[in-house]
Amino acid sequence: MAPPPSTAQKSPSPSQPSGKSEVSDLKLQLRQLAGSRAPGADDSKRDLFKRVISYMTVGIDVSAAFSEMVMCSATSDIVLKKMCYLYVGNYARCHPDLALLTINFLQKDCRDEDPMIRGLALRSLCSLRVPNLVEYLVAPLGSGLKDGSSYVRMVAALGVLKLYHISAATCFDSDFPVMLKSLMLTDPDAQVVANCLLVLQEIWNLEANKSEEASREREALLSKQIIYYLLNRIKEFNEWAQCLILELVSKYIPSDSNDIFDIMNLLEDRLQHANGAVVLATIKVFLHLTMSMNDVHQQVYERLKAPLLTLVGSGSSEQSYAVLSHLHLLVMRAPMLFSSDYKHFYCQFSDPSYVKKLKLEMLTAIANESNTYEIVTELCEYAGNVDVPIARESIRAVGKIALQQYDVNAIVDRLLQFLEMEKDYITAETLVLVKDLLRKYPQWSHDCIAVVGNISSKNVQEPKAKAALIWMLGEYSQDMPDAPYILESLIENWDEENAAEVRLHLLTAAMKCFFKRPPETQKALGAALAAGQADTHQDVHDRALLYYRLLQYDVSVAERVVNPPKQAVSVFADTQSSEVKDRIFDEFNSLSVVYQKPSYMFTDKEHRGPFEFSEEMGNLSLGQESMDNTPRYDESDKDLLLGTSEKEENGAPSANGSTASGYSAPHDYNSSLVSLSSQTRPEPATSDPSLPKHSSHGNIAIDDLLGLGVPAAPTTPPLSLNPKAALDPGTFQRKWGQLVISISQECSIDPQGVAVLTTPQALIRHMQASSIQCIASGGQSPNFKFFFFAQKDDKSPSYFLVECIISTAAGKAQVKVKADDASASEAFFALFQSALSKFGML
């Protein structure tokens, strides 16, 4: 038998071991080199370590060499250390029993003279994430937070977060949050400060729902002293850390207008930063700070234009799109402020299609009397673009501008010229737009019908365009001589038409044409009704049957139903509600702006952020009745910004915001930071105790089968509520996160109430009669969710917050109550239950 070839003759592929003995050979070679001081030993170890890492990377189990790898780690070669730490971190989770072998050498490396090795060892030690080894992390982390090297302190700060995720109790027992806060306020290294801030934010966000103390600590991070301390040092941080700080500042609630101007002066130079993320984060701060100051808010928009337009023109197409998405959001909120900059949104030849589409939307939004001609002229050039989707979008943009009542005469002429270009997709898009124009401007019917009548229906294949053409044939059949005969030819090819939308329009057009030209259309209408009743599509069948029975009942009645006098459409419905747009604006500088939808629409619940209320509010709509005092935004407002129901008149003069960018915050904010770092640490959060049980009143009977009458509703407890209570969503969210649940109870709902509860508004109006306001609601039958609030009528700021989840299928409501005054919770719950039990009763 021939001996196997030697490794010198043929070396195996790193990703394909030559046989089962390959790992054994690696172990043997590693064991021979362990502890070797011979020249070149480290080079040999490197080669072997590289092979082990290669096998591990492609999924080959090399955990059998764990002890040998640990023995070979006794070296001063930092490259070997890194590879060994990588190997150990990979297999420690799968083999926690083997991870115990690494503790000694990792702890030893944590005391090494080289700060790089100390930091790497500490990072690897914290990355083991084995619960049984938590006790070995405390001492190295404590030493790391006090280490003289900033790199080690930076690693130790992140290590505290890893320890928290393994064992939160150990983290709090070791006073690490207190140490991090002290380090954040005193450390000279900016990256260490940033890491401490990141860790503290995550810890307190996760603990806020479990502990009132943790909630206060989270609020403390938004204190004036800490905010100004971080802002005064913001130039020392890298881009990532600056974005972290700016995101924190955007949540800060300033005390007065001077506070707002101080912060804006400190951040003025950040608008000229080369990094787009920093600029967008700064813009978010400016927008959120000035939302209650109309004049200043408008000046902020003017100030933000130049930095954003500069960013759009620099960098990659992807970056331009991200910046354009945020600029698009601002343009949609205040189009008049950007109307003079329309040329910046002209499409460039090199722009990708997704950038061009966004620019077309912005050109449509900013069009007004002064720039309509130039914008429409530019858009008409795009109609002949080789990129068909962009050509379609440009035609739609022209139509949208026409619907905005700007220079309609010229725009209609341009649209009718598109019909003469004899390109199928241009004709299709134009027909759809002409239909909408005729609905809004009936006076243009003569000119439009003259051109549309020359179009052959055989050349229109797209369902929407064919449906638009058929609509015009029916609506203006008296002005189109061939309308009955065109409809007849289309009805003859009924079975060849696949789109139900077209068949539905054919039925309606045939009816309209019959009422205007009965002799010519009678045969076509009969064929359409027969084909419609035999159609397999339910909507088509039902409409044909409806028309047939209407004609059978009374022709004059049928005409009043199908072809009544129409008024011109004044405004077309927006595809997005104002609540959704405001939610996207609240999530400025996030993917929500890029996707043009709130985060709850594209993220799982567990990934929507740390605030429980924010997660739950995602798919709820704000109750309009309770939002009368909160700012709403409407681009049709006179000042184009902040169209609130109650304008705030105490805005500070705008001149205060024009100081130099070298402005520094008052020093007394920095001098008071020492006291902040010495606060007592919070107790570790424990599991919530079982909620107290409350005796519920007798449930109302489902039905009075014996004829004894409906039982009386529970008597109203002696608690008076303020009928004009008001609470903004931000305060509600903050209170919901801070307060603990005082009552959690299931209630029954009367069957009459179940029958009435088809939409959330029915219950909202009913509860308002009991001075219980709704701030958010959502869902659809059979499941609804509400957030209510009420206020004591004793001039005190004591609020009751309620989460109410109703299942109409079960006739049950799960109610959770939180209160500023917990002693009054039971009385309020009885009142709430009483009001809920009366829902649906006459």
UniProtKB/TrEMBL annotation:
<dbReference type="InterPro" id="IPR016342">
    <property type="entry name" value="AP_complex_bsu_1_2_4"/>
</dbReference>
<dbReference type="InterPro" id="IPR012295">
    <property type="entry name" value="TBP_dom_sf"/>
</dbReference>
<feature type="compositionally biased region" description="Low complexity">
    <location>
        <begin position="7"/>
        <end position="21"/>
    </location>
</feature>
<comment type="function">
    <text>Subunit of clathrin-associated adaptor protein complex that plays a role in protein sorting in the late-Golgi/trans-Golgi network (TGN) and/or endosomes. The AP complexes mediate both the recruitment of clathrin to membranes and the recognition of sorting signals within the cytosolic tails of transmembrane cargo molecules.</text>
</comment>
<dbReference type="Pfam" id="PF09066">
    <property type="entry name" value="B2-adapt-app_C"/>
</dbReference>
<dbReference type="GO" id="GO:0030276">
    <property type="term" value="F:clathrin binding"/>
</dbReference>
<dbReference type="Pfam" id="PF01602">
    <property type="entry name" value="Adaptin_N"/>
</dbReference>
<protein>
    <recommendedName>
        <fullName>Beta-adaptin-like protein</fullName>
    </recommendedName>
</protein>
<dbReference type="InterPro" id="IPR015151">
    <property type="entry name" value="B-adaptin_app_sub_C"/>
</dbReference>
<keyword id="KW-0813">Transport</keyword>
<feature type="region of interest" description="Disordered">
    <location>
        <begin position="1"/>
        <end position="24"/>
    </location>
</feature>
<keyword id="KW-0472">Membrane</keyword>
<comment type="similarity">
    <text>Belongs to the adaptor complexes large subunit family.</text>
</comment>
<dbReference type="InterPro" id="IPR016024">
    <property type="entry name" value="ARM-type_fold"/>
</dbReference>
<feature type="domain" description="Beta-adaptin appendage C-terminal subdomain">
    <location>
        <begin position="719"/>
        <end position="837"/>
    </location>
</feature>
<dbReference type="GO" id="GO:0016192">
    <property type="term" value="P:vesicle-mediated transport"/>
</dbReference>
<keyword id="KW-0653">Protein transport</keyword>
<feature type="compositionally biased region" description="Polar residues">
    <location>
        <begin position="669"/>
        <end position="681"/>
    </location>
</feature>
<dbReference type="GO" id="GO:0030131">
    <property type="term" value="C:clathrin adaptor complex"/>
</dbReference>
<dbReference type="InterPro" id="IPR011989">
    <property type="entry name" value="ARM-like"/>
</dbReference>
<dbReference type="InterPro" id="IPR026739">
    <property type="entry name" value="AP_beta"/>
</dbReference>
<dbReference type="InterPro" id="IPR002553">
    <property type="entry name" value="Clathrin/coatomer_adapt-like_N"/>
</dbReference>
<dbReference type="GO" id="GO:0012505">
    <property type="term" value="C:endomembrane system"/>
</dbReference>
<comment type="subunit">
    <text>Adaptor protein complexes are heterotetramers composed of two large adaptins (beta-type subunit and alpha-type or delta-type or epsilon-type or gamma-type subunit), a medium adaptin (mu-type subunit) and a small adaptin (sigma-type subunit).</text>
</comment>
<feature type="compositionally biased region" description="Polar residues">
    <location>
        <begin position="653"/>
        <end position="662"/>
    </location>
</feature>
<feature type="region of interest" description="Disordered">
    <location>
        <begin position="647"/>
        <end position="698"/>
    </location>
</feature>
<dbReference type="GO" id="GO:0006886">
    <property type="term" value="P:intracellular protein transport"/>
</dbReference>
